[in-house]
Amino acid sequence: MSENDTARTRAWVVHPDIPASSNRREPEYALAEAKSLALALPGIEVFGGDVVRLPKPHPGTLFGKGKIEELKALIEGQEIDLLLIDGPVSPVQQRNLEKALGLKLLDRTGLILEIFSDRAATREGVLQVEMAALSYQRTRLVRAWTHLERQRGGLGFVGGPGETQIEADRRAIDDQLVRLRRQLEKVVKTRALHRAARAKVPLPIVAFVGYTNAGKSTLFNRLTGADVMAKDMLFATLDPTMRKIELSDNGPEVILSDTVGFISDLPTELVAAFRATLEEVLAADLICHIRDISHPESEIQAEDVQTILEGLGVKKDTPHIEVWNKADQVAQEDKAAVANQAGRADDVHLVSALTGEGIDGLIEAIAIGLAGHTREEEMVLGYSDGRKRAWLYEKGLVQSEEQGEDGFHLTVKWNPHQAALFEKM
């Protein structure tokens, strides 16, 4: 066994199947997703996992005595270092389980926070994750939080300096939260300046949203020629990426925005923390909802995405296009039916970001969707408003012009961004 192998953390994943919960996912798919989450964290080796049916969760230990004894035997026999629970675990349950099993435990929220901390690349992303993690840890009576002094990625739940510290000083956490908020305010001001600079170039924004690992970044790279990290991995993209592209030869220029993938039961701490990062989605002229149409629970994933978008405050009247991605992974016997289903809807497009199938039709649909978002208006500009008139012509917005006694009578065709920019002149 190599040195790298010995350094890996052996994890066991448990998905509690609770009939009374609102979870609509099939247990086996939920367990598979939880394993993928674990694999998205460097240094984790998923030894295995199982579904545990819980008619009624135990308030103190989540699982009953028999299951705890079974887990303990498995942990000792297979030298498991970390237990991952695919669901919420209360601080009391976590403390009692860690004591009974003799190892570290992460619930779904803790695991996602750990992944986000490891992946965040921008200053804003790092600050947002730190704040979300501290808010989460503040409710935990037994957590390590000296990761604030670490130099490596991750939150310190799995390993690293300070992992044996038992209690977090609540006052120190509050002080750190205050400092982080101040730092984040400065970064947010910088982002506001960047948005103001982009507003001077009034291009429509097309935002890619979707469930994690739906292929957003692969599609983004194909359309823009960018090199955004695109892997068959949950949360491969965390920090938003924006690129200006021309949709086709002599076609309209747009700004494409690639965003963090959503997931069911996304921790509320992260939804709040990443709200600022997702401002481009709120301001988008067109939203492309990327779906992994080959996934057996694609429909449920789509509903989860819509729920999160509504929670973020995305306007319902913002034009949407559904992009059914990964057509190349649909079983051959099912592909004709999927293609027919997509073809019956005006706003659904079957594509493969990997092979390029359906991309030309998607580009055309984006252009048409944005064109539908523009409107024609008539206005009168005084003869002294030469600067405004020149700007309209420079942007190619003037459809017709006549001169009258009171000035230039113009018909312009523009989108809301262009109209808002004109009003500020």
From TrEMBL:
<keyword id="KW-0479">Metal-binding</keyword>
<feature type="binding site">
    <location>
        <begin position="258"/>
        <end position="261"/>
    </location>
    <ligand>
        <name>GTP</name>
    </ligand>
</feature>
<comment type="similarity">
    <text>Belongs to the TRAFAC class OBG-HflX-like GTPase superfamily. HflX GTPase family.</text>
</comment>
<feature type="binding site">
    <location>
        <begin position="235"/>
        <end position="239"/>
    </location>
    <ligand>
        <name>GTP</name>
    </ligand>
</feature>
<feature type="domain" description="Hflx-type G">
    <location>
        <begin position="204"/>
        <end position="374"/>
    </location>
</feature>
<dbReference type="GO" id="GO:0005737">
    <property type="term" value="C:cytoplasm"/>
</dbReference>
<dbReference type="InterPro" id="IPR027417">
    <property type="entry name" value="P-loop_NTPase"/>
</dbReference>
<dbReference type="InterPro" id="IPR032305">
    <property type="entry name" value="GTP-bd_M"/>
</dbReference>
<keyword id="KW-0547">Nucleotide-binding</keyword>
<dbReference type="InterPro" id="IPR030394">
    <property type="entry name" value="G_HFLX_dom"/>
</dbReference>
<dbReference type="InterPro" id="IPR045498">
    <property type="entry name" value="HflX_C"/>
</dbReference>
<keyword id="KW-0460">Magnesium</keyword>
<dbReference type="Pfam" id="PF01926">
    <property type="entry name" value="MMR_HSR1"/>
</dbReference>
<dbReference type="GO" id="GO:0003924">
    <property type="term" value="F:GTPase activity"/>
</dbReference>
<comment type="function">
    <text>GTPase that associates with the 50S ribosomal subunit and may have a role during protein synthesis or ribosome biogenesis.</text>
</comment>
<dbReference type="InterPro" id="IPR042108">
    <property type="entry name" value="GTPase_HflX_N_sf"/>
</dbReference>
<dbReference type="InterPro" id="IPR025121">
    <property type="entry name" value="GTPase_HflX_N"/>
</dbReference>
<feature type="binding site">
    <location>
        <position position="237"/>
    </location>
    <ligand>
        <name>Mg(2+)</name>
    </ligand>
</feature>
<dbReference type="GO" id="GO:0046872">
    <property type="term" value="F:metal ion binding"/>
</dbReference>
<dbReference type="Pfam" id="PF13167">
    <property type="entry name" value="GTP-bdg_N"/>
</dbReference>
<protein>
    <recommendedName>
        <fullName>GTPase HflX</fullName>
    </recommendedName>
</protein>
<dbReference type="GO" id="GO:0043022">
    <property type="term" value="F:ribosome binding"/>
</dbReference>
<keyword id="KW-0342">GTP-binding</keyword>
<dbReference type="Pfam" id="PF16360">
    <property type="entry name" value="GTP-bdg_M"/>
</dbReference>
<comment type="subunit">
    <text>Monomer. Associates with the 50S ribosomal subunit.</text>
</comment>
<keyword id="KW-0963">Cytoplasm</keyword>
<feature type="binding site">
    <location>
        <position position="217"/>
    </location>
    <ligand>
        <name>Mg(2+)</name>
    </ligand>
</feature>
<dbReference type="GO" id="GO:0005525">
    <property type="term" value="F:GTP binding"/>
</dbReference>
<feature type="binding site">
    <location>
        <begin position="352"/>
        <end position="354"/>
    </location>
    <ligand>
        <name>GTP</name>
    </ligand>
</feature>
<dbReference type="InterPro" id="IPR006073">
    <property type="entry name" value="GTP-bd"/>
</dbReference>
<feature type="binding site">
    <location>
        <begin position="325"/>
        <end position="328"/>
    </location>
    <ligand>
        <name>GTP</name>
    </ligand>
</feature>
<dbReference type="InterPro" id="IPR016496">
    <property type="entry name" value="GTPase_HflX"/>
</dbReference>
<dbReference type="Pfam" id="PF19275">
    <property type="entry name" value="HflX_C"/>
</dbReference>
<feature type="binding site">
    <location>
        <begin position="210"/>
        <end position="217"/>
    </location>
    <ligand>
        <name>GTP</name>
    </ligand>
</feature>
